[in-house]
Every structure is written in structure tokens, then in C-alpha cells.
Design goal:
Blueprint: H1 12-15, E1 38-39, E2 48-53, H2 68-76, H3 91-94, E3 97-102, H4 113-126, E4 130-135, H5 141-152, E5 156-160, H6 180-186, E6 196-200, E7 211-214, H7 215-221, H8 223-234, E8 239-244, H9 266-275, E9 281-287, H10 298-320
Parallel strand pairs: 1-3, 2-3, 2-4, 4-9, 5-6, 5-8, 6-7, 8-9
Helix pairs in contact: 2-10, 4-5, 5-6, 7-8, 8-9, 9-10
Bound molecules: manganese (II) ion (MN).
Length: about 325
């Protein structure tokens, strides 16, 4: 940017030409990209692109996650006045992070959706750019992982979730948010032995070799121990973090389709995400925010904070690669 930024500039999402910097815009007004990043399809030099996938056709209970991306973007406008607290660096000023906008798809053709989403993510990855995706229900993570595995090989997944999403489903035509991980493991695009699910508190008959830190273990031993265990499981290979907002307790995040009590507190999630610093993060997502079930807006605020932490983890991984 050539001109001095004034303290109440408007619509930085459309005007932030250098694509870096904190936002001085009124939080309650203007175009709400994620963290007021530049809204652009230009991926030249972009290190991380935020994209929305407003798809909830695969929900088994309450739909509504199609409104997640918009709600999380709006909630994120409360944040970007200052660097994320306690990280010791400012990814918003030091890294090129943009908002790529939402996936375009025909809701009347759900059978086409997996390929359309996979191509969308692959296009971004082919530019050398990572993705942070705002969902959408948890099915979206399957086509995303297909695109990631095509580029990086089998991914080591850290999944925050109340549910394992490992229900057996051998019908390739089915689109179901409760079976995305089953298909991902079966397809070999996830390295189960180096993957871990955190916060599980619903039954699963077969984890297919995926490691589990269930909610009871987490509450008994604490978030730092859980994160340390997860770090050890994941190791140094290419990592993807998928955060189902229903990992949080519905007392904090009721705006989701399949809530289960006994979940994570926001603080436990914050401590764990921070303690995952050092994983070779290639991308991530925040899914299952269904704002209509939460009159307070808290769920979307949680989703926005998770997104910010994923950005920090991603940019720290870039620093580790010396790029
Ligand atoms: Mn899930």
C-alpha cells in the first residue's frame, strides 16, 4: 500500500493491496472476509487461502452448516485489530493470507459435489498455496483430503470431534458426514497409524487403526498431555487438522448439527491448538458450525478463533521450512 492507512478505513477486504497488515476497520461494518483478508482469486504469492464451502447436504441430524462460512467470517471481524495473543509473531502482517471466497457448486447436483470441491482445493494447492476451509458439514473434509493426498501423499490427520466419523460405508456414491474418515482411511489418503482423533465421546466399533484420545482421557489428564501425545503420534510428516466444532461442549458451542455433552472447553481447545506448534501443517478446516441453533453467536466466535489458531500453526510450519 502506498498511502498511509487511516484509522477507520472501510472495506479492507476489497482494498488491502499489499495483502498484509492488521485491520483498523470498525468491526461492526464493512465487507467481512475472514479476518478482513483481501478478497481475491489471485493466488500469486499467496501462502494461505481461506475458502468457504457452504455445503450441508451430508448431515445426518440437523442441517444448517451451509451458513457456517458466512457466520464465521462475520465473527472473525471482532479479531484482527491486534496480532493473535501470545504467539510472538503476527501472521496477518508477516504472511500473505487471503480470502479466496466460497466454492461455487450446484446444490441440485450433490453427486457432482465431491469432484467439484476436490478440483477447487487442488487448484489452490497447485499454486503452492495452503488452504484453510470454513465448512460446511464434515463430509467436505473427504474431497479436501483427496486433493491434499494427491499433492503430499497420505496425510496425518488430527481430528477434533465428538464423533469418529468412521461408520462403515462402502458405497462410493454415498455422501455422508459420518463416514468421511472411514472412506479416507480405506482410500489410503490418510495415514491412520500417524493420525489421531481428539475429544471422541460417541461409540465406534472399529477405529481402523486411527489413534484416539477420547473426551474422558482428555478431561482426566488435561489438554497439554493430550497435545503432547498427539504430537508424538503425528510426528514430522505432512499434517492436516480438521476441527469439528462439536468437539467443543454444546454448552459453549450449541450451534452445530449433532451436539454431545461432555466435550472440550474453549480453553482446553486453545491450549491444545497452541501446544501443537511444530507440526508440519499443510492445511486445515473448521466444520459443522450451524449458526441458527445458537442465538448468542458463540459457536461462530469459537469457529473464528479456531481458524486463527490454524493460521498461526500453518505459518509457524512455514517458518520451520525456512520459506
Ligand atoms: Mn465430525
Amino acid at each position: 500500500m502506498t498511502q498511509e492507512r487511516t484509522a477507520r478505513e472501510v472495506d479492507t477486504a476489497l482494498r488491502q493491496d499489499d495483502r498484509k497488515g492488521l485491520t483498523l476497520e470498525n468491526s461492526f461494518a464493512g465487507v467481512t472476509s475472514f479476518l478482513r483478508r483481501r478478497y481475491t482469486k489471485d493466488l500469486q504469492g499467496v501462502e494461505l487461502a481461506v475458502t468457504g464451502v457452504a455445503f450441508d447436504t451430508a448431515t445426518s441430524n440437523r442441517s444448517g452448516a451451509r451458513f457456517g462460512p458466512r457466520a464465521v467470517r462475520e465473527a472473525s471481524s471482532l479479531q484482527p485489530y491486534t496480532p493473535p495473543y501470545g504467539w510472538g509473531f503476527d501472521p496477518l502482517s508477516e504472511n500473505v493470507i487471503t480470502d479466496y471466497g466460497d466454492l461455487a457448486f450446484d446444490p441440485g447436483r450433490p453427486q457432482d459435489f465431491p469432484a467439484v470441491l476436490q478440483a477447487h482445493i487442488a487448484l489452490i494447492l497447485d499454486a503452492g498455496t495452503g488452504t484453510l476451509t470454513l465448512g460446511g458439514d464434515h463430509f467436505i473434509t473427504l474431497p479436501i483430503l483427496r486433493a491434499y493426498a494427491a499433492r503430499f501423499g497420505p496425510m496425518r490427520v488430527i481430528q477434533f470431534d465428538a464423533h469418529s466419523d468412521l461408520w462403515a460405508d462402502d458405497d462410493p456414491e454415498r455422501i455422508d458426514h459420518g463416514t468421511f474418515m472411514y472412506k479416507a482411511v480405506r482410500e489410503g489418503i490418510v495415514d491412520a497409524r500417524h493420525s489421531v482423533q481428539i475429544g471422541i465421546r460417541t461409540e465406534c466399533s472399529d477405529y481402523l487403526g486411527v489413534n484416539v484420545i477420547d473426551a474422558f482421557e482428555l478431561h482426566e489428564h488435561g489438554p497439554k498431555a493430550a497435545a503432547a501425545k498427539a504430537r508424538e503420534i503425528v510426528g514430522d510428516g505432512p499434517c492436516y487438522i480438521t476441527f469439528d466444532i462439536d468437539a467443543l461442549d454444546p454448552g459453549f458451542a450449541p450451534g452445530t448439527g449433532t451436539p454431545v455433552w461432555g466435550g472440550l472447553t474453549p480453553n482446553q481447545a486453545a491450549v491444545m491448538l497452541r501446544a501443537l506448534d511444530g507440526v508440519a501443517l499443510k492445511g486445515g478446516d473448521v466444520v459443522e458450525v450451524a449458526p441458527a441453533y445458537d442465538a448468542t453467536g458463540a459457536t461462530a466466535i469459537m469457529g473464528a478463533h479456531v481458524g486463527t489458531e490454524l493460521i498461526c500453526l500453518y505459518c509457524r510450519a512455514l517458518q520451520g521450512q525456512g520459506t
